[in-house]
Amino acid sequence: MCFVSEQLTPATAMHYPWQDTQWTSLLAQVEQQRIPHALILGGPKHTGKYQFALTLAQRMLCESPVGGYACGSCKQCHLVTANNHPDLLKVLPEDEGKAIRIDSVRALGEFASKTSQQGGWKVVIIYPAESMNQNSSNALLKNLEEPGPNTLLLLVCHEPARLSATVKSRCRIVKFPVPTITQSRPWLSQVVGQDQDIKQLLDFAEGRPLLALQLIETDLLERRHAFEGMLDDLAAHRTTPLLVAEKLVVKKPVANDPVVTVDWLYSRVSSDIRSGQGAISSRLMFRYLDRLIQAKKLLQSSANPNVQLLWEELLLNWQLLFVTR
Ligand SMILES: [Zn+2]
Hints:
Blueprint: H1 20-31, E1 38-42, H2 49-61, H3 75-81, E2 88-91, H4 102-113, E3 122-126, H5 134-145, E4 151-157, H6 165-169, E5 172-175, H7 181-192, H8 198-204, H9 209-217, H10 220-235, H11 241-251, H12 258-275, H13 282-300, H14 307-320
Parallel strand pairs: 1-4, 1-5, 2-3, 3-4
Helix pairs in contact: 4-5, 7-9, 10-12, 11-14, 12-13, 13-14
Residues 62-64, 70-71, 74, 76-77 line the site of zinc ion.
């Protein structure tokens, strides 16, 4: 378990409890002064990797760490929490979902080549690192090849497979898998309250605790329940694929983006396969999963498909999974 000293203040960034193993290992490397100059913190979205990067960055910059963590009260810590530390650079896209521009990576080059303003480490957080396009990646390579002294680059990455092979070969990869329910349950039930169905929340969020939290904080959970209800009604022949498809497209009671709804359907079928529920034949269910992958690709393409027709077909085939042969 992570050690949290009473002397720590709320101004100390703190990683999540399911990241103890990664923290312990990296902290040992920091304390033995053998931390690599570039790390890829890689793993699925919504598992808290950015928070981990911040915790490590503050630890590197703090003047007098306590129990392995930043103290939260020195000048450096105050600069970090005020988002104003001259030796901490965050390289982010201008808008979420957009590419990280080459100008930002060039600014990183200047930052890395200067000496530290506060006399300690310099830390760069690139988030999310897969948002760098080819040009930005190439610009980054120079910094990875000739790192300045006491400079740490943290590439926070949801999809390491999308990083260029050369970038990956110059970094140490630290993996952040989806935590087990045993790891995330105590934290989640503390944050959202004991009365929530934690297992179902984590199921809906595919085990990712921060997504589970987001489901509660928005009305996504309600929408997800409504969609599950529609699927149950179809399976029990209480409604028809045509009616549900029309409802999904016209009233949009579930999600505005049909890709999200296809993801939910995919996750429902996968969960039914795992629990052995639902269809007569898991072979048919696997075939149906393939169909959902195709549908998602079609929706993401520029083909501009007729969404209502697509839903009619997907839902009809969902219903057919429950026909007794
Ligand atoms: Zn401090």
